[in-house]
Write a structure and sequence with these properties.
The complex is a heterodimer of chains A (122) and B (210). Helix content of chain A is 42%, strand content 20%. With 122 residues, chain A is of the alpha/beta class. Classes of the chains: A alpha/beta (122), B alpha+beta (210). Chains A and B meet through helix 1 and helix 5 of A and helix 1 and helix 2 of B.
Chain lengths: 122, 210
Amino acid sequence: MAKKILLVDDSSTVLMMEQMILSHGRYRLSTARDGEEAVARARAERPDLILLDVVMPRMDGLEALRALRADEATERIPVIMVTTRSEADCMETGFARGCNDYVTKPVNSVELLAKVRNLLGE
Amino acid sequence: MADDKLTCNDLLRDTRRYIEELVSENERLRGAAAEAAGDRRRLEERFAEVERQNSNLAALYAASYQLHATVRRAEVLLAIQEIVVNLIGSEELAILGVGPGRELVALASVGVSPAQLAALRADAGLVACALASQQPEVGPPSEMTACIPLAVDARPVGAIAIFRLLRHKPALDLLDLELFKLLASHAANALYCAELHERGERTGAGDDRC
């Protein structure tokens, strides 16, 4: 059964790139445009993995991560933060709030695929 | 007794020959394994290269698609910003128009101070080089990382100025140069079409000019 991945980013360009990169893996992909929508979709769809942007309107990625980890239904879903913010403090906050890994933009497809496969146990 | 000795010698000789055959087979298998490891390494490198090429093509496709996915000027400007931020990797950029008196007008900007914008001139620095050559120009990072001219029908109408790259991106790569070329040829046309469309909407004319 194909694994489900939730892609979260307010940028159509990034969502399109991620969809194209992951389309080779026969994953079932869904998208959300901000943190609130991400949390709602994660609760409803229970994806196997979430790719989560940091800077987004309404609710940013770090807040969304906190909400995901605070909910029994979503607390165990692996999360990869996808961010232009490579500064150490942002990564430390992400890991402190329970993200499993991170990639920086511009997204390197080989790196992203390797991290996705690793967290999906493939 | 003699027969026994003969048999022992034969057995010893056969055993030695068998051992030599095994050693030889072992060497052959080691060679084959090394060759297979080399093949695997080459295939892995080739696979990674194909993945990189796919990713580059995906980036070019996504950029082209986003530029032409709308006829709203504000959305085209946003698409250009998204491409520079997310595919090239800079959060310091300005999209500039060239006014009738060759003055530069900031159409949109991200992470650039008013002083930086005010210092830009159409007849000086990297912007002037890009407008004159009608080719993307890469500059010394101290001044500007790159400037991409925007031209419609070979007429310079603006430029995209990219200042510093993101901290974790050490330098431009081949994909960035391809994206510069794509922006130079597509971004101006997309902006021009959007302007025509919105002008047509304001005057009540049809929207089938592009």
